Amino acid sequence: MNLTLKIWRQKGPQDKGQMVDYRVKDISEHMSFLEMMDVLNEQLVAKDEDPVAFDHDCREGICGMCSMYINGEAHGPDRGITTCQLHMRMFKDGDTITIEPFRANAFPIIKDLVVDRMSFERIQQAGGFISVNTSGNTQDANAIPISKHAADEAMDAATCIGCGACVASCKNSSAMLFVSAKVSQFALLPQGQVEATDRVLNMVKQMDDEGFGNCTNTGACEVECPKGISLENIARMNSEYLKASLKG
Amino acid sequence: MATLDSKVPKGPIADKWTSYKDKIDLVNPANKRNIDIIVVGTGLAGGSAAATLAELGYNVKAFAYQDSPRRAHSIAAQGGINAAKNYMGDGDSNYRLFYDTVKGGDYRSREANVYRLAEVSGNIIDQCVAQGVPFARDYGGLLDNRSFGGVLVSRTFYAKGQTGQQLLLGAYSAMNRQIARGKIEMHNRHEMLDVVKVDGKARGIIARNLITGEIERHSAHAVVIASGGYGNVYFLSTNAMGSNATAAWKIHKKGAFFANPCYTQIHPTCIPRSGDYQSKLTLMSESLRNDGRIWVPKHLEDAKAIQEGKLKPTLIPEENRDYYLERRYPAFGNLVPRDVASRAAKERCDAGYGVNATGEAVYLDFAAAFVRYGTEQAKIKGIHDPSKEEIIKLGQAIIEAKYGNLFQMYEKIIAENPYETPMMIYPATHYTMGGVWVDYNLMTTVQGLYCIGEANFSDHGANRLGASALMQGLADGYFVLPYTIGDYLSDDIRTGTIKTDTPEFDEAEKSVKERLDFFINNNGTHSVDYFHKKLGKVMWNKVGMSRNEKHLKEAIAEIKEIREDFWKNVKVPGNLNEFNQELEKAGRVADFLELGELFALDALDRNESCGGHFREESVELDGPQKGEAKRKDKEYAYVSAWEFKGEPSDAVLHKEQLEFKDIELKTRSYK
User: Fold this and answer.
1) Taking the CB of the first residue and of the last residue of chain B, which one, N or C, has fewer CB atoms within 10 A?
2) What whole-number distance in Å separates Cα of residue B582 and Cα of residue B571?
3) Can you tell me the distance from the alpha carbon of B31 to that of B265, in angstroms, rounded to the nearest whole number?
4) Domain residue extents for chain B
5) How many CB atoms lie within 10 A of CB A84?
6) What is the CATH number of domain B512-644?
7) What is the pLDDT of residue B290?
8) What fold is seen in the domain B269-429?
């Protein structure tokens, strides 16, 4: 198939940036979206033009590196996948595809489609851990039984890949789904209880300091999340936050 | 010149590590504050090492080429992590895990290292649970185990199909705690481009800030390389696009010996290639072979019709199918080890029986499992005289519960419903057992330079067992290196900060800059990928699953040609001082073009078949094992450790003789 691509080009953080049109020909429906981008970049290199910068690494939907906003949706039109798992069979010959970076004040653009997600790192550093040193003498793994239900729910929250699709999809650029996934994972496990109060207060404070917006329960984040992280996590974080504030 | 001293402690194998730990030198907590350690790579091995070293009090500087440690390719591991906990009460023990690993590695690993790995495996699970890793549990709330790849016990801990992700996030959270305390200085989007040696000791690195392009000097009292494997030398592999050998190769060029480069694991259950534009291959857990039957058509005309899209596999009657693994290996059938399954698939496809347009695919068919599970379910549910459709539906539900996510992944990529049409699979490069040579302390042949995780060579011999990579990465990072590095650093408590304004740093930075300048200024004609794909083709066709002298010699010559062409005609757009992904790739491919040649040279030297390395000249000629791989213990029970001498073809081979005192050498038989 032959396609027209409208791609956001921006040389660096200070550059103004603009949409630029490109054409690609003979794209196979079996290609992944990023392989289509590879074809475009080979073309650009051959013509001595600057290839389009985009983040990607594992190309199997788990590292969370890829981050494009395609035709107005984070990770494009398919559900439950990342951009690297999106295939060209989702498009038709002659289509025009708009490709932009994940946009949010807390995700400044580095170049073209590449954004800086260090704000996510700082939120995790504010409390996304259990304070246990490596010793080899921690108690036996089976010493604390954890109900299968709680373990499974914690696992569902922990599958977040930190891509930022939730932020890009939210009209408020809220990071609540991302932050609540980590808060929930630890809130559901006995190991996480000791530091629960500080964790939720510190992580939420950092989230606010980074300039992410608030949650207004639109639910776009849940729809676009490639890993199906549930809105219930936000409810759980709110309750954890309330508990912690009353204690605090 | 460096010599090979494995530094394995004396004494009975079960006591070596404990008594060794009791006697090594320690660094007092106040002095640790004055010692810096660089860790390059933040996957399971590097991430766990960085966190633990920082907890101990050292100042850690960690480097990752991604934008966060959480993105390292350890995250993609699906199946699980082995540990000799014996929670299932099925007779597991440290010795059994040790034995299985040495045997699985086809007797080409170092006994003492493997025993230590088994010994600390249980601690890993304890540590991860304490960190909040949500491992799968049973209804009583205790940890669940599954069985894996050709062993007789259930010792694999797992977190759904995302065990690597959860373990990495555990190590990442431990790192975050130390980053917040200022004990780890994290350098994301940085790539190490050389190591700096001062008076023969590793004292720092030169790194490029991938956002600004700035070249930076970083010093330390010791340098740890944890940069993963080199599977991308094949261009197509299940590795991440950015996975590279640059850090490992740079230290090789500065004196670290490179061991067993030819030991590569080709995984049998990957999604086949669909065209020349393909950028990477996707693995599906080998657990699928528990229930799927592998076959190709018995008749060439059927295979041809399928390749041309004129025939559907479901229309081929049972008697016209060749279940070649069950035919050749009646005892293990579809569950033969990875290397055996991969070679058998290649043999059928080379003979023309492949089942997709490229001719490089075989079927993995669940139809029999649907019927088997469906019949059982009908009985359990008390359905009398169920119809065939009912049985299949019941069976499909069971398969969906077991492998639903894999079936969905397959359908997204191939756009075919694997519940209706058999899956297509083909082998792909997955893991490299070879790597930088290290002694018992995980130190390379350069003083103060360590190598851990997949980047080193030590624990998996010629073939790695499933669910053992995660175990080794975390063992090295959490429980081995933090002890052994202290013994070395205890001599450095009075050294003080290492300065970076010295001739050694000047020189290393100069050569790094010269190379980058060359790439940008070379008015070449072909993109970096053009050369990488050419290299990958040679590697796959001549240094792939099945190797012979003629092809290896050709490969060595061809890789050299591609390399020469690369240095004349490579084209890198853009500038030095900016975010430039083509420039990053250029450096990595330049290193693969050297490593590939050494790889072929090593394969040529090893005229035996062992594990993932199969030499067509070394097969059993008669008896029940006729046609199978033949290991030659008298001649080749050694580790090949190569010393760099300017050109890959000039590399000098050093041999570390392997001793098997606790395990008897036996032929692996799966007939």
Assistant:
1) N
2) 9
3) 42
4) 269-429, 512-644
5) 27
6) 1.20.58.100
7) 83
8) Flavocytochrome C3; Chain A, domain 1 (3.90.700)
For residue A122, give the nearest of A32, A181, A210 by alpha carbon.
Answer: A210
Alpha helices in B365-455 (DSSP H): 367-380, 388-414
Question: How many C-beta atoms lie closer than 10 Å to residue B557's C-beta?
Answer: 13
Contact A32/B279, CB-based, under 8 Å? yes
Quick one: CATH architecture of A117-247?
Orthogonal Bundle (1.10)
pLDDT digits (tens, 9 = 90+) for B452-497: 999 999 899 999 988 999 999 999 999 999 999 999 999 999 999 9
Mean pLDDT of B133-149: 89
Helix axes B111-131, B16-23, angle to 10 degrees: 80
User: What are the boundaries of each domain within chain A?
Assistant: 3-111, 117-247
Q: Render the burial of B611-637: b for 16+ CB within 10 Å, e for the rest.
A: bbbbbeebeeeeeebeebbbbeeeebb
The interface residues of chain B toward chain A in range 160-179, judged by CB-CB distance below 8 A, are 160, 162, 165-166, 169, 172-174, 176-177, 179
Q: What is the pLDDT of residues B495-545, one digit of tens each?
A: 999 999 999 999 999 999 999 999 999 999 999 999 999 999 999 999 999
Has residue B403 got a pLDDT over 80? yes
pLDDT at B1: 46
pLDDT for res B258: 98
Q: Among A58, A84, A87, A111, which would you mutate to test the B interface (most chain B Cβ atoms within 10 Å of its Cβ)?
A: A58
**Taking every pair of C-alpha atoms in chain B, what is the biggest distance, in angstroms?**
85
pLDDT of A123? 98
**Interface predicted TM-score (ipTM):** 0.98
Q: Is the pLDDT of residue A248 over 70?
A: no
The one catalytic residue in B96, B116, B338, B343 is B338
Average pLDDT taken over every residue of chain A: 96
One-letter amino acid of B234: Y
pLDDT value at position B387? 95
Torsion over CA of B671, B622, B603 and B267, rounded to 10 degrees?
A: -20
Beta-sheet pairing, B362-365 with B423-432: antiparallel
Question: Is the dihedral angle over the CA atoms B110, B115, B116, B120 positive or is it negative?
Answer: positive
Architecture of domain A3-111: Roll (3.10)
